[in-house]
């Protein structure tokens, strides 16, 4: 097996409808082609949280076409960094991966006013992650 040219990051939360979707969207925008991005949930919802879609739309990111995805062992194995956001023990563990747990409020059932601060916290964490990976954030 060859080493990937760019690092791969997987964001995991229970429903893959809020926090992990926001994190994946920000990393995709700010990391560009310099990082591979995945997101998944241990018990995915049917749709992405509408307040999350609205909050990201306010900063010019459209995730209206995204669909929550189920967490698979293959997704974890294919990732260099796994960032959990409330999925607990449902996340498989593999030696050699970097695991981070970001404690963030769950946007489920909340309106856009409550989602905005979570969105902004996630953006800041993504910028820090990019710096840790040695990747220059894109404008």
Automatic annotation (TrEMBL):
Coiled coil: none annotated. Gene3D superfamilies: 3.40.50.2300. PANTHER family: ARSENATE REDUCTASE. One of its GO terms (molecular function) is arsenate reductase (thioredoxin) activity. This is Arsenate reductase ArsC. The keyword Oxidoreductase applies. Its EC number is 1.20.4.4. It holds the Pfam family LMWPc. The keyword Oxidoreductase applies.
